[in-house]
Design brief:
Blueprint lengths: L1 E6 L6 H19 L18 E8 L2 E8 L6 H13 L11 H4 L3 E7 L3 E2 L12 E6 L2 E5 L1 H7 L3 H12 L13 E5 L1 E6 L8
Antiparallel strand pairs: 1-9, 2-3, 2-4, 4-9, 5-8, 6-7, 6-8
Helix pairs in contact: 1-2
Amino acid sequence: MFEGHVAGASAVAADHRSALLTFVRAVARWILTGRSDTPPPRPRVEGRFGGAFVSFYAGKLLRGCVGSFAAITDLAAALEDITGASLADPRFETSPVTLTELAELTIEVSLLSDPVRAENPLTLIPGRHGIVVRRGAQSGCFLPKVAEERGWSAEEFLSRCCTMKAGLPADAWRQSDTHVYVFHAEVFRESPPPLRPA
């Protein structure tokens, strides 16, 4: 079972969402067992996407989240690669996800639209739009739900992305040599695992 939240137009049918979540979990298990067996069969989901992210949560605690903004035409293949990257999220290098822990984690998949250059970044809608801030080789991004979860305004969302993700000054998004892109995300996740009795 899964729970869905859509920011932007829906692109994937409910049964395909369920199949993709099942596939990502199977890939994670395959990776954490050393890739010794045959890899899980890839579900066929038609469509083109502007990128994707895979996230692992222990309750509300993030345990890995990595994505790609490369255009995707083979979604299952892309999710297989991104799942491996998320399990190796460098933020958790000293405490990576383990096979034992995997059963207690909730998996979330975010499918992205193509990023579009924002002429006026302040017109973005927090909770609906995700952002990419880029200046030269420096860049950072936030998924749409980050602003919603933290109660940020559009200006806070932009400033925090500059400082926390792109390594830029808080007001860099206002400057002409910084490009801001916005995108939508279709986000769906597994239901959390049931609580174990004390």
